TrEMBL record:
Gene3D superfamilies (alphabetical): 3.30.300.30, N-terminal domain of ligase-like (3.40.50.12780)
Protein's UniProt name: Putative cyclohex-1-ene-1-carboxylate:CoA ligase
Family: Belongs to the ATP-dependent AMP-binding enzyme family.
Lineage per the UniProt record: Bacteria, Bacillati, Actinomycetota, Actinomycetes, Kitasatosporales
Source organism of this protein record: Streptomyces clavuligerus
GO BP annotations, alphabetical order: fatty acid metabolic process
Amino acid sequence: MNTTAHALSGSPTLWELLRGRAAASPERTALLQGDRELTFAELHDRAERVAAGLHGRGVRPGTVVAWQLPTRIETVLLMLALARIGAIQSPVIPYCRDREVSFALRTARAEFFAVPGAWRGFDHTAMARRIGAAGLFEAYTELPEGDPATLPPPPASGTQVRWIYWTSGTTSDPKGVLHTDRSLIAGGTTLAGALRLTRDDVGSVAFPFAHIGGADYLVMQLLHGFPVVLFESFALPGALAEYRRHGVTMAGGSTAFYTLFLAEQRKRPERPILPALRLLAGGGAPKPPELYHAVVRELGCELTHGYGMTEVPMITMGSPEDTAEQLATTEGRPPDGMEIRIVDDEIRLRGEAVCQGYLDPAHTAEAFDEEGFLRTGDLGRLTPSGHLVLTGRRKDIIIRKGETISAKEIEDLLHTHPGVADSAVIGLPDPVRGERVCAVVEQPPGAAPLTLQAVVSHLRSQGLAPHKLPEQLEVLDELPRNEALRKVLKYRLRERFA
């Protein structure tokens, strides 16, 4: 995409993007939260004063600063202030607790740690003291400020590692993923180019800003100069008033967000719950084709879904210019500068948005092949038009009597059943089959109880091969999910039902 080439020319920094946007659109609204509002000029000036305050406390270029903050204006200010200094920042999802936080701080060798104090019933300051965090300070409503004249020059290049993000660590310790401003800008530029956004759009962030999607979104905003509404916590129907109040035109986050909006719309199908909404967009989890069609039909907006990961924040993205079939069944196309190679069904990646590796050199050596392509562990194929179709993950493949079964294929078909709100298909140990297919479903309110026989009958009618049919059905009130993008935690289901 041309925007990618333009944004990456000369390896700009995140701070340069902010400085350029503040000069081009000083009076335009940048951030909205409740009754608070900042223009791009105010965002720039306040971030620079916060940078001076942090510098006065000893934060220097290359200093590692970890922060565990909710989605607030102060969080964006802190992120930009650290970018102004040229510090190395390590965002930590605010729902992580002692073990994960201690591991992240220790492994990254963080010299400072910013927390929100007591937030949503949990005392982050007390936790930080328990684990012996260095340079502890609270940054929920107040940030240190100083005279920008005391600051050194801003970073001159976006090619140095200045970000340490963390993988989910659901089955082992998380991995510290190394990013540069350049790789994050490449991801955000891809997203902006695919969605065809304009300065007249009103965006929204309802997921943790500490997720790598936060940086993606900030880059996209700075490139196009549109306002963004921040949600400290996302709960429906409570958040709908803020979406309507600010006339949000683009919402989303992940598949679970689409489902939640759809459930609210079905409570009052006679009129749109978000009249200004023109686009739902997101990624982070597979999207069943039936969910795409339901969103377009019932919410009356477009849905574009993408593919990304902590190591590569944006790999492909659906575009409003794609056909309905492409939007429903693929994850979109890669931008210029992103190479996708399929090796033994595994997706491998090389390009500007790919991380520099991991904190642990052994993880880096294992993750990249001899030609510098990142092994994703995801399985997929490319269509003749260049669109990517995800078919599952290596660890999500079920081997039943020697036959390979894709969990995603069964999940997509389960979503076509009216009695299924969401599903997860897992393989469970079986002494005869090796693994047996288990479908775990979440039902919509008021749905008749599902039986294994009814599920099997439905899947047969959809043409699923007999050897792929589930042999076990579990119905839960709610599937276990993480707190970032609401991804289903299949390892918990395997532990529970094995």
